[in-house]
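Continuing the batch. This is chain 6 of the set; chains 1 through 5 are on the previous pages. Same settings as before, nothing changed between runs. Recording input and output for traceability.
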Amino acid sequence: MAKKNVYQWNKEAQDGDEAYVSRSQKKRDSTALQKLGEELAKLPISHLGKLPLTPDLHEAFAELARVNSKEGRRRQLQYIGRLMREADSEAIRAALDAMLLGHTQDMRVFHQAERLRTALLETPATEWEALLAQLPLPAGEEGQRQRQSLHSLAQAARDEQSQKEKTTASRELFRALQPIFRQQK
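Output for chain 6:
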């Protein structure tokens, strides 16, 4: 009995365990992993330590940081893409997305605190209570104490602003607002 020739494009799962993956699909997967590597390469080395990367990948990213030539960077990124095939790309993607989501939430908190500080400095003091009522402050005595503290910080920042001094009180007001918005996460 003659053995039937099996070609790479006509290959079916011979072991019965693995499904056939086309060459085009392998290239698409490889390109996706290389793009993930490029995305990781944009991060600072300190952030890469927080991701579940293999030691080879850490070393490859450190080498990429040292390479200056365009061609050398391109080849190093290809090498990183090849190393990504051996790593757990789903875990890396999940950790990267979580890191980026955390950064996005931090930026949201920063902008909310900045907007409220600006509003407190620009609106009359009689309208401050309405602005502070929008904050998720605790009820009772603790909330009243926080409200009073923010009110006094806003007044100090406004006084400094009118005297054209350095706005240390404005910074203190901003620092007092940030934890309040972080609690909203």
